[in-house]
Design goal:
With 721 residues, this protein is an alpha+beta fold. It folds into four domains: 202 residues, Hypothetical protein af1432; 144 residues, 2-Layer Sandwich (Beta Polymerase, domain 2), CATH 3.30.460.10; 153 residues, no CATH class; 75 residues, ACT domain (Alpha-Beta Plaits), CATH 3.30.70.260. It is built from 28 helices and 20 strands. Strands 1, 2, 3, 4, 5 and 6 form a six-stranded mixed β-sheet that branches. The chain has a five-stranded mixed β-sheet with strand order 12-16-14-15-13, sandwiched between helices. Strands 18-19-17-20 form a four-stranded antiparallel β-sheet, covered by helices on one side.
Length: 721
């Protein structure tokens, strides 16, 4: 009786602590248990007076997180870090305090899972992105960071019902987008399933309720089938005297919902609500069990997957097969060893307690490799949003396996192209990729690869990384290698263009940039907080600084007051830049008016893009000149090479073979047709816009003159904006 009264007065945190210590006693030493109690006392005192939305003392949350990890038998440092994971964020406790009282590892783990609260972010999304980036950087050093974070998120999702509906939906979406896929990527199956179902309930409570009720109603109807399947499986193994443990499981609600949504079917059309698992002792027995099962029931063609020979990227191993069971119901079966099952359920956390300094479990090795590759692709980029986009792409891989000519297996996400394969082999191979053979047949570089194909990459010293590859590559390695190359290429272009602009500005006022003394230039760079001359020229090339104003400051610093007076009054620059074509990436020809050599042109600075060239009479030009002062005089160089797009309008009679005749004329004049747009059509005629490539105005005039002589051409004109 007294014991009952005592229990009634116990606080929730005391009950949780008792359960935690009881669980930890199973695998921690007495001295380690003492350390855990010390961590609890520190956290409890520090969180004193803080409460959750549910009304319970805040300390209940970190203890619950620690309990989740204790049931997975995580080490003592991880347990202590879980108990104290909110101290740096929500209390006055410092990193130094934790390092002094415990050790650097514990302090580092707590710091890694703490949000960046001391930095002011413009938006919630920016804060989330940067926090995620910080966490992944810490994960690369210690995988326990993400295990703690996932346990933290799991407990928050278990108690999310007290939050406002909008907050519930936002957090649930983030969980489905990021945390559940991370758990899947790290092989933590149980975490993933619970996170998905909890998020599903928070985002779509009505849909979850309907599916849940349907499953309960169907259990009785399908029990006969399930029981019969299980009985036949057990009898089949008993007959062969094979040591296999058979168990059935119900699929989680979210996976059923996704299948219904993806296939557009009703619940009563989903037959594989139940799946069966066969656990054996050795890898050899997995394949033996597969043979027994295929003798019992007919296998469904194309549904067998061998994840033992070719494990998933998260270390998951199992044999998957689908059989046609009683009453024609498909039976999904997984066959694996007890060891494989342990890894399948807990992933990187499966063997943490038994990890040694010399040997890491395969799942942990794969996780480290994934993180290393993910972070490697992000080197040189400080964009947190780009990191999140990359992460999301990387978290949803459906894998294929292809072969190199020497028989090496290369694992790629589904949808990968020949270019993805080239970069997967080596970045240098991808950069020099000029062609590809798939099963010994030449194929386009954008060809999507399929399982089992042999891919051979042809390289060339003259091959150039193509920006258009970004339109079809799917792997992060390829995408970031291409982006980084383009970024470097663009920066080199910007430096060159910036130098041209600054030189032109100085020449327009009768001076020479080379005459600026090095110390004067350095003074200017220091005043503007610019790291180097290249950085200055890059800013000019990208259109982020005006050459006129830079020239003004440099002239003033040189002491030439007379030359700087006119500039300081804000007069438009008289400098003229020669245009040799669409030079690199920073001389852009306006698509609204499509200037070609021979046209009178004008240039505008566009921040981040460089110089955009328009025809003088383009209607956008007048608007730009009225609103902005950042324009400059440009002219075509004496020698301009390349092909330029131009739009011409044609009113044509509706006659058989007209388009073929026009296409033939374009070809005879070395013009490529880039696009055809039908503006209007009647019974007798059509009005079409052709985008063609020409060398200059004279070339265009010759083509138009030839077309004007055709009987089928009613009218021809160049499109003007």
């Amino acid at each position: 009786m007294e014991a009952d009264k005592q229990n009634e007065t116990e606080l929730p945190q005391e009950v949780l602590l008792a359960e935690l210590m009881s669980t930890l006693k199973e695998y921690l030493t007495a001295s380690q248990l003492q350390q855990v109690e010390q961590a609890y006392q520190l956290a409890s005192d520090a969180h004193q007076g803080q409460y959750r939305l549910s009304g319970e003392d805040y300390i209940c949350h970190p203890v619950s997180v620690a309990l989740i990890l204790a049931r997975m038998k995580l080490d003592v440092d991880c347990i202590m870090a879980a108990i104290m994971h909110d101290l740096l964020e929500d209390t006055e406790t410092t990193f130094e305090d934790l390092a002094r009282l415990f050790n650097d590892d514990v302090a580092g783990l707590v710091d890694a899972v703490s949000k960046l609260t001391k930095i002011n972010f413009k938006t919630r999304e920016e804060a989330q992105a940067e926090n995620m980036r910080k966490m992944f950087l810490a994960m690369a050093k210690d995988l326990r960071v993400i295990i703690i974070k996932l346990a933290d998120r799991l407990h928050n999702m278990r108690t999310i019902s007290v939050m406002k509906p909008a907050s519930r939906r936002r957090i649930a979406k983030e969980t489905l987008d990021i945390y559940a896929p991370i758990a899947h990527r790290l092989g933590m199956h149980e975490f993933r399933l619970e996170l998905e179902d909890l998020s599903f309930d928070a985002m779509f409570p009505y849909r979850k309720s309907v599916i849940s009720k349907s499953i309960k109603a169907a259990r009785g109807n399908r029990k006969e089938v399930v029981d019969k399947v299980e009985k036949l499986l057990i009898e089949g193994f008993l007959d062969t005297k094979f040591p296999g443990l058979i168990s059935g499981r119900e699929k989680n609600l979210y996976s059923i919902y996704l299948k219904m949504k993806r296939q557009g079917i009703a619940f009563n059309e989903v037959f594989d609500v139940y799946a069966f698992r066969v656990i054996v002792e050795t890898t050899e027995q997995c394949y033996q069990a597969l043979g027994i099962l295929h003798n019992l029931f007919k296998p469904v063609p194309g549904k067998f997957k061998d994840y033992i020979a070719l494990p998933k990227s998260n270390g998951y191993q199992s044999l998957h097969t689908v059989l046609v069971g009683p009453f024609g119901v498909p039976i999904e079966l997984q066959i694996r060893t007890l060891e494989m099952d342990r890894v399948a359920e807990s992933g990187i956390a499966a063997h943490w307690l038994y990890k040694t300094t010399d040997v890491a479990h395969d799942a942990q090795v794969r996780a480290h490799e994934w993180l290393r590759n993910l972070l490697e692709t992000q080197k040189g980029s400080d964009d947190s949003f780009e990191f999140i986009d990359t992460l999301k792409v990387d978290l949803f891989p459906t894998e294929i396996f292809v072969f190199s000519p020497k028989g090496k297996i290369v694992k790629l996400p589904k949808g990968s192209t020949a270019v993805d394969f080239a970069f997967a082999v080596h970045t240098d191979i991808g950069m020099a990729c000029a062609g590809v053979k798939i099963n010994r047949i030449m194929e386009p570089l954008h060809t999507v690869l399929r399982n089992g194909q042999t891919v051979e990459v042809m390289t060339s010293d003259f091959a150039v990384c193509n920006p258009n590859w970004l339109n079809f590559v799917v792997t992060n390695k390829a995408r970031h290698a291409i982006r980084n190359h383009l970024k470097e290429f663009k920066e080199r272009d910007a430096i060159t263009l910036g130098g041209q602009l600054l030189n032109a500005e100085f020449k327009s006022i009768g001076l020479n940039f080379d005459d600026v003394a090095p110390e004067q230039l350095q003074t200017f760079l220091d005043e503007q907080q610019i790291g180097s001359l290249d950085a200055l020229l890059m800013d000019l090339g990208f259109g982020n600084r005006m050459p006129l104003l830079v020239a003004q400051h440099l002239i003033m610093s040189a002491g030439d007051e007379d030359s700087s007076i006119d500039i300081a009054k804000g007069k438009q620059s008289t400098a003229t830049l020669n245009i040799h074509g669409a030079d690199g990436m920073l001389i852009n020809l306006g698509t609204c008016c499509r200037p070609i050599p021979g046209d009178k042109i004008i240039g505008f600075f566009s921040p981040g893009r460089g110089v955009v060239v328009h025809r003088v009479h383009c209607k956008n030009t007048r608007e730009y000149k009225r609103k902005h002062k950042n324009w400059l005089n440009v002219q075509w160089a004496n020698i301009v090479e390349g092909e330029f797009s131009s739009d011409i309008g044609l009113e044509l009679k509706n006659e058989r073979g007209v388009l073929a005749e026009i296409a033939s004329i374009f070809s005879s004049y070395d013009c490529n047709i880039e696009n055809i747009k039908i503006a209007s059509r009647s019974e007798d005629a059509s009005s079409d816009i052709f985008t063609i490539t020409v060398r200059d105005r004279k070339h265009l005039a010759r083509v138009m003159r030839r077309l004007r002589g055709l009987a089928s051409v009613i009218k021809i004109f160049r499109i003007r904006n």
